[in-house]
From TrEMBL:
<dbReference type="InterPro" id="IPR036866">
    <property type="entry name" value="RibonucZ/Hydroxyglut_hydro"/>
</dbReference>
<keyword id="KW-0862">Zinc</keyword>
<dbReference type="Pfam" id="PF00753">
    <property type="entry name" value="Lactamase_B"/>
</dbReference>
<keyword id="KW-0378">Hydrolase</keyword>
<dbReference type="GO" id="GO:0046872">
    <property type="term" value="F:metal ion binding"/>
</dbReference>
<keyword id="KW-0479">Metal-binding</keyword>
<dbReference type="GO" id="GO:0016787">
    <property type="term" value="F:hydrolase activity"/>
</dbReference>
<feature type="domain" description="Metallo-beta-lactamase">
    <location>
        <begin position="13"/>
        <end position="196"/>
    </location>
</feature>
<protein>
    <submittedName>
        <fullName>MBL fold metallo-hydrolase</fullName>
    </submittedName>
</protein>
<dbReference type="InterPro" id="IPR001279">
    <property type="entry name" value="Metallo-B-lactamas"/>
</dbReference>
<dbReference type="InterPro" id="IPR051453">
    <property type="entry name" value="MBL_Glyoxalase_II"/>
</dbReference>
Length: 216
């Protein structure tokens, strides 16, 4: 059974997730740790629970979700996994990191393993189905576990909201399609772990999310 630990890091209040199972293997999804205390919090949790990190997984390559990629890569000697468009997104981060005040940002290594729609992300005894959900970002993936009924969805869908589309590569109609035709096809009781803010469920968002009537 997969255990999920959420940690909220950096000024963007980004949610980093550590997923692990009974084998003690874990994956670190969207490491946003930037300050030393944030890095220590992640390392301490992994050590306390005797976990073995095996992958860095990026839902997408925006700065707030990848601030800790380099640190985690160097600390544990593990590679980055993401969509084929992730490399281009990561390459852009150093060009604007200082604009957001991250002057000590260390560039992420390129992804070694590329994932696409229909792939399965495996660690330990666990497996997550991979869906491609662009619109917020052109490299955006989400990770669904059918048996336990949850999805790690990054910045696609939020509680009562949805991902912004005013960043490079963002597109409202593409995002709306990702939400209506991928996310909202998941079972209503699916728990949505978001890139920012609180968890929600597919059923709640299908009823109340403003994506239904929003337009740009």
């Amino acid at each position: 059974m997969i255990q999920i630990e959420k940690m909220t890091f950096n000024p963007f209040q980004e949610n980093t997730y550590v997923l692990y199972d009974e084998t003690k293997e874990c994956i670190i999804i969207d490491p946003g740790c930037y300050e030393k205390n944030e890095q220590n919090k992640l390392v301490d949790f992994i050590a306390k629970n005797d976990l073995k990190p095996v992958k860095i997984v990026n839902t997408h390559g925006h700065i707030d979700h990848v601030l800790g990629n380099y640190f985690v890569h160097k600390t544990y000697g593990i590679d980055v996994v993401g969509h084929e468009n992730l490399k281009q997104q990561l390459a852009a981060v150093p060009t604007y990191s200082s604009m957001y005040g991250f002057n000590a940002y260390q560039p992420s290594p390129d992804p070694v393993t590329l994932l696409k729609e229909g792939d399965v992300l495996k660690f330990g005894n666990s497996a997550l189905d991979v869906y491609f959900c662009p619109g917020h970002a052109p490299d955006h993936l989400v990770f669904h576990h059918t048996g336990q009924g949850f999805v790690i969805n990054g910045d696609v869908l939020f509680k009562g909201s949805f991902g912004r589309i005013d960043l490079p590569g963002g597109d409202f109609e593409t995002l709306k399609n990702s939400i209506l035709n991928t996310m909202f096809k998941l079972p209503d009781d699916t728990v949505v772990y978001t890139g920012h803010g609180e968890e929600t469920t597919i059923g709640v968002e299908k009823i109340s999310n403003p994506i239904h009537h929003a337009s740009f």
